[in-house]
Amino acid sequence: TINVEGTDKAHSYDMPFSAVHVIVPKERTEEALIAARDAGARGVTIMEAHGMGLSEMDNFYNRLHASATDSNLMFITKTKNVDNIIKSVLTKLDITGEGQGLTFAYPVSHIKGLRLKIDDI
């Protein structure tokens, strides 16, 4: 069910949606948010994260208690926006190697509670 902003209407629409995740060091969170917004993202859920490479798995227990060093930004967006959002973040943050950031997307269904502007439908 999609809520239409500015009205009391909620409808079921047959629209493909995806989740785009952008995981970046905390200090680059604002840059990533701006890049995604400029590419069409309209809302975000921000989660604290802490990544580790396979070489760090030997001391896995101690890493469980490490403080978060990254932000996991999750954008629910129309599938047609996915490529633009990912390209914008990768380009503007110059994410090219290990430890600099990560992006991925996957399709989602059965969305409830999402609010869209009438122009976005």
UniProtKB/TrEMBL annotation:
Gene3D superfamilies: 3.30.70.120. One of its GO terms (molecular function) is enzyme regulator activity. This is Permease. It holds the Pfam family P-II. InterPro entries: N-reg_PII (IPR002187), N-reg_PII-like_a/b (IPR011322), N-reg_PII/ATP_PRibTrfase_C (IPR015867). The lineage of its organism: Bacteria, Pseudomonadati, Campylobacterota, Epsilonproteobacteria, Campylobacterales. One of its GO terms (biological process) is regulation of nitrogen utilization.
